[in-house]
Amino acid sequence: MVAAEGEGTISVVLADDHPEFRQELRGLIEETSELAVVGEARDGVSAVRLVEELGPDVVLMDLHMPLKGGITATREIAALDEAPAVIALTASGASEELLAVIAAGAAGYLLKGTSAQEIHSAIRAALDGGTPLSPEVAGALLRHVRESGTREAVTDPPPSLTDRETRILQLLAEGRDNNEIAAEVFLSKATVKVHVAKVFEKLGVQSRAQAAVVAVRAGIV
Questions:
Q1: Would you kindly state where each structural domain of the chain is located, as residue ranges?
Q2: At residue 153, what are phi and psi to the nearest 5 degrees?
Q3: May I ask the CATH class of domain 152-217?
Q4: What is the largest CA-CA distance in the chain?
Q5: Given the DSSP bridges, would you call strands 35-41 and 58-61 parallel, antiparallel or unpaired?
Q6: Which of 5, 12, 20, 126 fits a 20 to 30 Å CA distance from 189?
Q7: CB neighbours of 84 closer than 8 A, spacing ≥ 6?
Q8: Predicted TM-score of the model (pTM)
Q9: Exposed/middle/buried for residue 73 (C-beta within 10 Å: 0-12, 13-18, 19+)
C-alpha cells in the first residue's frame, strides 16, 4: 500500500470534524507535489470506511470526533491487513490520550499548529518506519512513563532480545529512522527492517512508539 520512494505520490486521508481545519491542513500538505489528500472524514466511522475504500498511505487522525473517536478508529485501522500509517494530530498533549492512541497502533503524535515542513517530515518518517512525535509530546511521553512507577529498576533487556535487537530497540526509542539505525549498527536498511519486525514480534507491539514505551519501562533508554 505504501508508495515506495520515487514511485509516485503519497496518499493521505484527513480525519477531523472541523471543515475549516481540514481545509487548512489540506493546503499545508499539498504545498509539496509528493503528497496528495485523497479523502476527508468528519468522524471516526467515515475515517475507517475511507481507509478501507481508498487504501491510503497515511491517515492524519484527530482524536475527538463524533460517532467514533480517533483512538477507536485508529485501533480498527491498525487491525486491517494492509494498514496505513496513522498519525494522531490533535490540540491536546495529554499523556493519557498519547499512550492510548499509541497503544491503539498510531505511528506518531503531532500537535495542531505543527508547521507544513514538520507535517511533511512526519509523514515521510512514519512511512520509513520512524516515530514522529512533536518535541513537546515526546517529552510528555517519557515523563509519563518514567513517573508512572512502571519503570524497572534494572537495565536488562526485555526477555529474548539479542544484544543487536536491544541496540536497535534503543535507537528506535530515540526516534531514529531505519536509515539512521542502519548507519549506526553497520547494517543495510533491509536488514534493519527485518530486525525491527523481530523486535516487534518479541515485544508483542505493533508500532515503534509502543516499542519505545517498552524500552523506557525496561530502563534501557
A1: 10-142, 152-217
A2: -80, -15
A3: mainly alpha
A4: 49
A5: unpaired
A6: 12
A7: 1, 2, 13, 51, 55, 56, 57, 58, 59, 77
A8: 0.69
A9: buried
- CA gyration radius for the chain? 17
User: Could you write out the three-class secondary structure of the chain?
Assistant: CCCCCCCCCEEEEEECCCHHHHHHHHHHHCCCCCEEEEEEECCHHHHHHHHHHHCCCEEEECCCCCCCCHHHHHHHHHCCCCCCEEEEEECCCCHHHHHHHHHCCCCEEEECCCCHHHHHHHHHHHHCCCCCECHHHHHHHHHHHHHCCCCCCCCCCCCCCCHHHHHHHHHHHCCCCHHHHHHHHCCCHHHHHHHHHHHHHHHCCCCHHHHHHHHHHCCCC
pLDDT at residue 11, rounded to an integer: 96
| Cβ pair 215, 173 in contact under 8 A | yes
* Amino acid making up residue 44: G
Dist. CA 20–CA 131, nearest whole Å: 27
Instruction: Inform me whether the pLDDT recorded for 31 exceeds 50.
Output: yes
In contact, 219 and 117? CB cutoff 8 Å? no
Contacts of 194 (CB under 8 A, 6+ apart): none
pLDDT tens string 114-144:
888 889 988 988 887 766 766 556 656 656 5
* Residue whose cell numbers read 553497520: 186
| CATH match for 10-142 among 3.10.20.30, 2.40.50.180, 3.40.1000.10, 3.40.50.2300 | 3.40.50.2300
